[in-house]
Amino acid sequence: NGGAFGLLIVEDNPEADGDIPVWASNELLLQISNIENVVRANGKPYEIFDVKAGQWYRLRVSVVDPLGKPQELRFTSGCEVHKVASDGIWHSSIPGSQASTFEMTGASRGDFAVRCSSPASTVNILCDDKVAAIVNVGAVEASPHELIAWTPMRPASLQDIASASVPDDNRFAIAIQRGSINQEPWKPDVPLNTIAFDEVHEWEIGDSRNHPFHLHLYHMLVVTRGGCGAHLEGEFYDTIAGPPCTVRFKTADIGQRCVFHCHVMQHGDIGALGWV
């Protein structure tokens, strides 16, 4: 709650991830916190970015709010913006649709392809209607990168999940309360369930708008038709905050104990925390 958080970048691996576009290495980093309605960016009242008109940038954003409330990230006019990754995982098809407003959870990461067109102009990035960054647009880039259509490669642990046959034993429902999960408070020696390793699991997550559900170890694929609020069908997330949502994940690579919790930190502290 006092600011003990940070942003860790795991670099892309061109050999494993496929033909990563050149613009993806043109990075801007923005760590936003919203604590007690005070927004800070990279530890400052706001960040300042100097960019060139017509050039594509990969803006990597992390949003932290210990209260877990949804955060609206909004770009004022002057830039073309596409969200291309969520919670560290590339979207299934890039660049995807264009937008100017994006809903984030209190524990979201998002990567955005951004290009500002008008030289000698200023664009603001707002979080919760407060300025998080000021983008100063300079002279036109002489040799800009291209934003071409791209389908990222995914590691084996994230492949073939949507089409997998899920046995009944691998289905589980999650309901989060203020101080418990499935009516059970935190018990460090008692799991809520025992699940199979290296198999696909399907979980039904109840309404999580007041209790964002965060799963450690595995990213969750949204399989609810039409998505769940801001969470798109067919994309991976590690925190779900929205209406009831069906997700799938594969317990590959890492086994033993897997923890999950409400991302309202106070709720986790009093028992909205469990493990399988």
How is this fold's topology laid out?
Layout: H1 14-17, E1 27-35, E2 38-41, E3 47-53, E4 56-64, E5 71-75, E6 79-86, E7 89-90, E8 101-104, E9 109-116, E10 121-127, E11 130-140, E12 171-174, E13 176-177, E14 180-181, E15 200-205, E16 213-215, E17 220-222, E18 236-237, E19 239-240, E20 245-250, E21 259-262, H2 265-269, E22 273-275
Parallel strand pairs: 1-4, 3-11, 12-15
Antiparallel strand pairs: 1-2, 4-9, 5-8, 5-10, 6-7, 6-9, 10-11, 13-14, 15-20, 16-19, 16-21, 17-18, 17-20, 21-22
Describe the protein in words.
- The chain has helices at residues 14-17, 265-269; strands spanning 27-35, 38-41, 47-53, 56-64, 71-75, 79-86, 89-90, 101-104, 109-116, 121-127, 130-140, 171-174, 176-177, 180-181, 200-205, 213-215, 220-222, 236-237, 239-240, 245-250, 259-262, 273-275.
- It is mainly beta and 276 residues long.
- A 6-stranded mixed sheet has the order 2-1-4-9-6-7, with no helix packed on it.
- The longest helix has 5 residues, at 265-269.
- The protein starts with 13 loop residues before the first helix and ends with a strand.
- The mean pLDDT is 95.
- Pairing-aware structural class of the strands and helices? mainly beta
Number of helical stretches of at least 4 residues: 2
Give the H and E element order.
Answer: HEEEEEEEEEEEEEEEEEEEEEHE
Mean pLDDT: 95
Q: How many beta strands in the DSSP annotation?
A: 22
User: Spatial order of the strands in the main sheet?
Assistant: 2-1-4-9-6-7
Instruction: Give the helix proportion (percent range).
Output: under 10%
In angstroms, what is the radius of gyration?
19 Å
| Strand content bin | 35-45%
Broad shape: globular
Largest β-sheet summary: 6 strands, mixed
Task: Please mark out the parts with pLDDT under 50 across 5 or more consecutive residues, or reply none.
Answer: none
Distance between the termini: 27 Å
